[in-house]
Amino acid sequence: MSPLTAAEARVLGVLIEKSKTTPDAYPLTVNSLTAGCNQKTSRDPVMNLSEAEVQATLEDLRGRTLIMESYGASGRVLRYAHNFGKVYGLPAAAVDLLAALILRGPQTASELRANCERLHHFADASAVEGYLDELADREAGTLTRKLPRQPGAREQRWAHLMCGEPLEIPVAPTVSAASTDLEERVARLEQEVAELRAMLESLTS
After folding, report:
1. Less crowded by CB within 10 Å, the N or C end of the chain?
2. d(Cα 71, Cα 85) in Å, to the nearest integer?
3. CA dihedral 117, 123, 128, 133 (to 10 degrees)
4. Which stretches of 5-161 are DSSP H helices?
5. 61 and 130 assigned to the same domain
6. What's the pLDDT tens digit per position in 38-75?
C-alpha cells in the first residue's frame, strides 16, 4: 500500500485514539474529528486542518477502504470509523502503538508504553519492543523503524513509516563538543595576542 499523507495519517491516528478514549462519541463526526486533529496537546506536530481538508482526506481514505461511514444512533449526522487493523492485518496492540507514533512522533519503548496506557495496557517496555520489532520485520511492508541513539539518551526512539521514511532530525552538538570547540578558539586567540605583543615589543625596543 502506498504511503499516507500527513493529513491521512493524522485522521487515522485520531480515529484510532478516540475509539478507545471516547467510545461513547465514536464513530466521529467531521467536526469532532477536526478538533481531534488540531489538538494542541498530545500531538507532534501540531496541525491546523480545516473541516474541508479533513472531509477531503476522509474521501481519500474511503477510497482506500481505511475508513467506514455510518449515521450512528441518531441517524442524522454522518460519522466515521477506522478500518486500519483489518486493512493492514494487524493486532489491536500494534494498531494502538502506531496511532501513538503517528500522533506524538518518535518515542522510546518506555514512552510509548506510558502514552499508550489509555489505548492498550502493556506489561512492560519489552512487550512494546516485541510489537515494534514485529512491525519492523513485517513481510507485507515495514511499518516501524528504530532510530539512531541520540547523544546522552539511554534508549533509542522508534518512528512509524506510514508516511514513508522519517525525516532525519539533526542532532545538536553535545555540551562537551561545544566546550571543546570554544576552548580551541580561545587558545588560538590567546596565541595570536601573544604573538602581537611580541611584535609590538620588538618594534618599541
Report:
1. C
2. 22
3. -150
4. 6-21, 30-37, 51-63, 84-88, 92-104, 109-115, 125-136
5. no
6. 999 999 999 999 999 999 999 999 999 999 999 866 67
Residues 6 or more apart in contact with residue 27 via CB below 8 angstroms: 15, 68, 70, 72, 79, 80, 81
Query: 124, 143 in Cβ contact below 8 A?
Result: no
Location of C-alpha cell 595570536: 192
Same domain, 1 and 81: yes
Q: Which of 184, 160, 26 is nearest to 88 (CA)?
A: 160
User: Cis (ω within 30 of 0) for the bond into 151?
Assistant: no
Domain range spanning residue 184? 173-205
Beta bridge pairs of residue 158: 107, 146
**Residue from 87, 72, 101 nearest 13 by CA:** 101
**Which of 34, 55, 89 is a domain's end point?**
89
Position 40, amino acid: K
Residues 148 and 129 occupy one common structural domain:
yes
Q: Do 113 and 168 reside in the same domain of the chain?
A: yes
**Is the domain of 45 the same as that of 61?**
yes
Q: Could you give the CA distance from residue 38 to residue 3 in angstroms, rounded to a whole number? A: 21
pLDDT in the model for residue 118: 96
Quote the cell numbers at residue 24.
461513547
Number of structural domains (the chain) is 3
Could you give the maximum distance between any two Cα atoms of the chain, in Å?
101
